[in-house]
Amino acid sequence: MDRQHSSLHGSFRSKDSSSTTGSDPREKIKDCLRKFIAFMFTQVGVGALVVCYAILGAASFMHIEKDSPDEQLENVKQWRKSCAEELWNITVNNNIFNETAWEININKVLKVFQSNITGAVHTGYNGRSAEDIWSFPAALMYSLSVFTMIGYGNIIPKTVWGKIVTIAYACFGIPIYILYFCNMGKVLAQSFKWLYITAHECSRREDAMFEEGEIQQIKRKITVPSTACLWVISFYILSGTIMFGAWEKWNYLDSTYFCVISLCKIGFGDFVPGANITDSAGGSHLKLVINFIYVLLGMGLVAMCYNLMCEDVRVKVRELREDLKNCLDDITLKITVCMNDTKYYHQKQTRHIK
Questions:
Q1: C-beta of residue 273 within 8 angstroms of C-beta of residue 247
Q2: What is the dihedral sign for C-alpha 311, 315, 317, 318?
Q3: Which residues contact 131 (CB under 8 A, 6 or more apart)?
């Protein structure tokens, strides 16, 4: 009885301890964190993480750069004002009949102003104020260009904190983008492969009726050809060419050039949607948002095509290896048969001579 009582008491104690641990808020928090981390490493979680990271970076850069005084813009205004005053003084002080002296003095002033403006342009001056440059869509596009390593260069941080935050943002954002690139490539590759196999099965069923085992064997053998991947990328570039060409008034060559440069992560920055002054002043920032979605989705398609083409190449190399092996086996067999026939014929000839 004492043993039974102690065992029952121990079982009640274990239940009480398990219930207390189960209701422990620390354990609940740890369990929620585990589930959240597991979700963030899924395909949907990584995509949401990239979008949230871009939005967070856009808000941070906009807060840092938008309210900071732009010394370069003030310097340009001062240069313009002093240039106009000097030109007026030269016109007033010089003899209007001495055209040669007037031209010499005017050219000196204009060369100084030209060199100042050229230096400002090389350091990022584009005629827009910080409020016009660092709108939320523009900051979102800047964040995308940082962690995707495109680096258009049309928007750059000018404050010390902006440069520091850019360094930290790139260090944490590039691994997140690589994770997105790999996961999104796998998801899109599996989806596109399923669509391709389904379409292939439908076309084969129209020609002949297959049993279930043969269909399963076809599923294992079919791979998406590289030409299909190239067609997908070409169609995506063509849609971007038409869209940006109509919006930005670019010719089709420049629009195609921009799409290819962006998807290949080269990003020269000579063509960027919504980068001119009139669009910025008019508040037309929809192009930047569409460009953000276009580039982010395009990176996923590039990753998809990369995975499918790698699989196609591996299958082709394996088939080539098997064909070479079979060819060598056939050649070896033919050589062996030929040598045996020659040996048999030689033996027969020697017997006939004897």
A1: yes
A2: positive
A3: 66
